[in-house]
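User: Thanks for the earlier help. One more: Kinetochore Nuf2. Can you show the sequence and predicted structure together?

Assistant: Of course, both are below.
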Amino acid sequence: MENDPKCLHSILRNLNINVSLKDIKQPTMESYLAIYKGFMEMCFLIKAPVLDEIPPSSIANFSEDCIKNQADSFKFLQLYSLINFMYSIMSAEYSMTEIFNPPRKLFFKQISSLINFARFLFDELNEYGKIQTENKALMENLNEIKKECDEYANKIDNLQTEAKQKKPLIEATKKRIAALKENQNLLRQARNKLADKNEIAKKEEQNLISDKNDLTEKVSSFKKKMDLYEMLLIKSPDRLKRDMEKNEARIIDLEKLSKAKKCENQELRKDIFERERFVEMANGVRDAFENFFNNEVQKANSKLKEIEKIQDEITSISFELKELENMIDLLSKNKKELEHQIQNQTLELKQKISKFKNEEEDISNKIKEILNRIQQTEDEVARIDEETSISIKKTQEMMAISFKQMEICKREEKIAEAKYKAEEIYLLDCQKETLDKVEEVKKAQDKMSHFLDKALEEYTKNGTFNFENLNI
């Protein structure tokens, strides 16, 4: 397709080279010179439009002379490449005669080679423009990265100020946690003391229950004896007298027993006094934790119902005792006194048992309340520890992320600076090479123009070229 005369004619017209189709089909020396001259003018008219669109920020490191001479240097570089191409054709395969007076077979091949070279130059220009657009995009990306780095620096400053502001709050929370731990230790010690006292009270309760069982057994045995006395009273009055004497002796023994019981009661009163002091101390603790007592009221009511049942049983026992008292009244007045003493002792024992039960309930309620309070304080301490640990972890994570982002930004900035410096060095090297080659191009241009002028003079004078008279 490239060797088609019509195709070559259209390509040359697009390149603003005025050659007719007849000149291509039947070429003359004027047509050859016009084509070569057109290519040279085209090379001088070549301009890199992308150079005018470079942002000022990217050329800040270049001098003004470098920027002004860059377009002209680019033109000379293209001309040097074209002349170098022509000399390579001439020295490698063709002579000067074959270039300026070629046979018909070589004409289309040479024109095709020049057209391919022109296309190569346009491709190079496009590639150079792409590189410049990529550099522009990289500069914009670098500016965006710098903005992001500034934003991250502001965020880091804000985080540091927040950390400084939260530092006294963290210290206050640490002090509060330490105080709560001390209170927790004190509450644990109080709980252990109350548990020990509760065990002592349980042991005393068991002793009182055993005493109560002994008394109930004695009452039952006494009832049996009263029944036996009633039977004997009806059948044998003599024996009744003897039994009365025995009963009087028994009453004396019971009086001794009552005295002993009174001594025991005095000891119990002392114990009760100590328990009352303990109750007063427990009341002080209860006043401190009275907001947490409402949950145990229902349990206390259920226990009170159980106590009422026990009291009903005790009342039934008292009714039985009253019946025994009536029977003893029939026997003797001394028997009545004995019954009154027994009744008083039973009432005192009931009161003691009820007091002990109430004390036990109070102690158990207080222990439960204290345990609930300890559990709440432990939960609060755990919650505060968790909140502080979460806040510390968040601040540490944010600081780590910010430091990583700063490192990434620094790395990207270093990479961009390295790329920018490498491009700057490359452009400076190209500029130096261009300036070095400009002199060679000027020399080659002078030689070529001198050669063409001589060739035109020779052609106008003689109508043909005499290459012996031409010195290259």
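User: Great, one quick takeaway?

Assistant: The two ends are 35 Å apart (CA to CA).
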